[in-house]
Amino acid sequence: MIEAYFIHLLILIGIYIILAASLNLAMGNTGLLNVGHVAFYAIGAYTSALLALNLNIPFWIGFLAGGILAALFALLIAIPTLKLRGDYLAIATLGLAVVVESILRNWTSLTRGPLGLPGIPKPALFGMTFNNNSYLILVIIFSVITCLIIYYITKSPFGRVLKAIREDELAAASLGKNTTKYKTQALVISAFFAGIAGSLYAHYINFIDPTTFSVLESILIISMIIVGGLASVKGAVIGAVILTLLPEPLRFLPIPSFAIGALRQILYALLLVIILIKRPQGIWGEFTKQKENGA
Amino acid sequence: MAFSQLIINGLIAGAIYALIASSFSLIFNIIKFMDLSPGAIFVTAAFSAYAFNVLFGLHFLIALILAITVAVALALLVNLIVYQPLIKRKSDSFTLLLASFGVFLIITGFILLIFGAEVRTFGLPITKGYELLGFIITKTQITLIVTSIVVFIGLQLFMKKTKLGKAMRAMADNKQVASGIGINVKKITNITFIISAALAAIAGILVGLEQNIDHNMGFLVILKGLTASVIGGIGNVPAALIGGLIIGLVENIGIWYLPSGYKDAIAFVILIIFLIFRPKGIFGVKTREETSG
């Protein structure tokens, strides 16, 4: 019983590591204000779940489809906003998150709306189904690969351009870098991994509904990378571990579930604000530069 | 339903969006960051008015004044303990926006904790609508439109005619110069937050008159308020009126053709269209601000 609970927590941590590390690529390394990462997570989860339920498409194809569709939506957001100053990306990503949740709720013929999608099959390989213990191994493999890829990206020449854009976009542009193209690529890659995380979540929990993908989930992922530290894979991992475990004790309090939800929300947001005021670089971050106000 | 009814419904919704858009635009224009907290101030005001009116049984007008007071006090508190330390450290607009997202969720989290997840309504008597030119309009809706018009005219007069309004516009143009000629930047910052919060609060209470309120409505308020200000040209306070009316009208005419569940997606589509073709808004003047960097 307790063992199953720990495995459950570890699986969640693994999924959140993918979400946090991928958001960090866009937000921490490139300085893109994506406040709607949860939208890409939701798109990945629903795509892969619907493909599995309606067309019997296995997880191994579904997760790629989820990632690719999430990446396409990121492209849709990137094209109009990334030429503009950063706040416009924040509006557009927040808008996307609000609208995706609303569509999941209202497109009942496809998503069954608030009833959710039950019975999403667990992945299988050569006749072996991934159950709780083996699913943990699967999630670990996915999150390690994600972290390695993102680490490699940030250390590559491409990653150095992203960092240059974050530090001083005008300077990067004056060196002949097409900054809009680089920012678009960063956002698209980031969304692709969020989509994969969504697919991993859907096939693990077996049931998804719109409440899982409320805009609130975005603040959780943002808090993870702010607490852990922007622009650091290690920071994203630490942030994901701390923030997944932090509200768990609330579960054992004798209070109604809406109050647990509210307390979780307050806890994450409070932590975010305190860290921003007191220790903006997070626990492990490298992002210490303070730009001029209004930059 | 007659077409004129759709227009009138659009205008009513638009009046609310316009108020909330001017609340966002004011802070963006003067303090220079995109503050999401007016979305939470809006919800706070709606729930405070509900609490004073329904739970404590106060007269509606007293409840309204108390609710606006609560909302303004909250905005000042947020400025004092969150924004001022960040602005003092010369934090970028990225950090301020993230902090305001946190503030939004802290406030709405407390509202959920206090009031629960149920949908609430003000205990106002339902009034019969008047029938005019083929559409029906209720007394509440007339009050709503008249209030928005009065508030808008008042805001314009304040910004153009009074000394404080002029000081605010000076600070919007150039903070350093404004401070150099003796404008008290700290005071103007507080006044900006007070006015912005009052606008958001009035919008929140007006929505409460018309519809149900719930703790979750803040997100849609942010989406529509910000979209309205993008349409008008973000930071352009008078143009926010046009932005709000456009969203209200398009939304209400749009649900004539689409299932009503997609109403909220309409604002988002308008947002993306404007960002592609006219990011500086209908009336926007091209400034350094709009381009990145």
Architecture overview:
The complex is a heterodimer of chains A (295) and B (293). Chain A is mainly α. In chain A, helix 2 (37-55) runs antiparallel to helix 3. Mean pLDDT of chain A is 85; it is low at 289-295. Chain A has a two-stranded antiparallel sheet with strand order 1-2. Chain A has helices spanning 2-29, 37-55, 59-81, 86-106, 108-111, 132-155, 157-167, 169-174, 179-205, 216-228, 233-245, 257-278, and strands at residues 124-125, 128-129. Chain A has a single domain (2-278), classed as Orthogonal Bundle (ABC transporter involved in vitamin B12 uptake, BtuC). Chain A starts with a helix and ends in a 17-residue tail after the last helix. Chain B is mainly α and 293 residues long. Chain B has one domain (3-282): Orthogonal Bundle (ABC transporter involved in vitamin B12 uptake, BtuC), CATH 1.10.3470. Chain B has 11 helices and 2 strands; from the N terminus they run ααααββααααααα. Chain B has helices at 3-30, 38-55, 60-88, 93-115, 139-161, 163-173, 175-180, 185-210, 218-232, 239-257, 263-277; strands at residues 130-132, 135-137. In chain B, helix 2 (38-55) packs parallel to helix 4 (93-115) and helix 3 (60-88) packs across helix 8. The model of chain B is unreliable at 288-293 (pLDDT under 50).
